[in-house]
Amino acid sequence: MTPAARVQAAIELLDAICTAARGQGASADRIAADWFRTRRFVGSKDRRAIRDLVWDAIRACGPLPASGRAALLRLAADDPAMRALFDGSRHGPAPIARDEAPAAGGAAPAWLSAALAASGLDEAEAHALLDRAPLDIRANTLRVTRDELAARLPVAAQPCPAPDGLRLPTGTRVEDWPEYAAGLFEVQDAGSQLACAALAAQPGECVVDLCAGAGGKTLALAAMMQGQGRLIACDIDRARLARLPERASRAGAMVACRLLDGGREAVALADLAGQVDAVLVDAPCSGSGTWRRNPEARWRLTPENIMRYARMQAHVLDLAANLVRPGGRITFITCSLLDAEGADGVAAFLARHRGWRSVPPACPIGRVRGAGWRLTPQHDGTDGFYFANLLRS
Would the pLDDT of 280 be above 90? Predict the structure, then answer.
């Protein structure tokens, strides 16, 4: 393909992504995979170039663009060489009209940028949420130490701030390695590892992962517990939870799974009420801290979404509080940097639950935010996370 043809292909793919975002449809990753699957004639170099153009354009546009062409014009606005590719050639895009405007730039739609600013993120912090992310893995200490794993990997890996974490170049295909198949490591951002470590799960304890999903944090808890104690992974999503037993088997982890009925979770958890040492609440959220990996997600959010997530988080925290024994603890986590999904929710929990207090986590990086702790891409080199340790008297 010619460079101009790549630009036109990126425009077509961006049109599909923008349409999906407007209608809360499939993710950009899924749309791109389907788009390339129906165009097998596109070679690997062209695919890579088109994907780079698409994701660079997504990162460059704050609000949802009117079209894929407007999104590419945002990139071309500061790149004369790209502007020249709008040449009207056979497979290239039409020339740029004199009055044709590019999509608006910025870190996010205006309302969302304002919410980030109100949550203590300046413009530089907000834009860093759209940087390209490295690839972090967590050594599974049920099978190997971090140093032993690093020595076995086929590429050089650098230690990251998480005690069992290693950092690899972006795009490394670790799932193809025999070390992955053998359960020696899991892909997990360093920030996620540190937030999970804040629970300090101990061997012999009864620990519940209340929003386990497919179990990434559950497996980290299992490693901390060294195969001793009782670890229960819960979720209302059958498809996601169904992936955990196979992952646990590969990792050598002992995990019991419970599928919960949304709205009736307390019934399924009644036998654990007041009996649990520690609960991890990796709450559903907007995912604003993970835009480095899913930058188009910011186009799908609305203020109503944020309010709904905040209500869900309060519900799950109240469920967790009912499970914890006196002297037990909760670690509340969201991969969002909006106070409505973090500091505000924790403050509200402490106001409605007497006998609970927050305890600062022992975290090597990050900053205090309200009654909890915050990690950000610019300040800490991780995905964005908010987490808080809550202790019952």
Answer: yes
Which residue's entry shows tokens 């629970």?
199
- Fold for the domain defined by 135-187: Alpha-Beta Plaits (3.30.70)
Q: Looking up tokens 């620990």, which residue turns up?
A: 207
- The residues spanned by each domain of the chain are 3-105, 135-187, 199-392
Point out the catalytic residue in the list 61, 211, 335, 363: 335
- The b-or-e profile of 191-204 (16+ CB within 10 A means b, else e) is bbbbbbbbbebeee
Strand partners, 356: 392
CB 103 within 8 A of CB 299: no
Tokens 């170049």 identify what position? Answer: 169
Its pTM stands at: 0.93
pLDDT for 343-384, tens place per residue? 999 999 999 999 999 999 999 999 999 999 999 999 999 999
pLDDT-based confidence at 250, cuts 50/70/90? very high
| 335 is an active site residue | yes
What is the pLDDT averaged over residues 257-280? 95
Q: Which of 252, 137, 136 is nearest to 183 (CA)?
A: 252
Q: Where are the beta strands (DSSP E) in the chain?
A: 135-139, 158-159, 165-168, 185-187, 206-209, 230-235, 256-259, 276-282, 324-334, 356-359, 367-369, 372-375, 385-392
Residue 263: predicted pLDDT:
86
Looking from the CA of 355 toward its CB, the CA atoms found within 13 Å total: 10
* CATH of region 199-392: 3.40.50.150
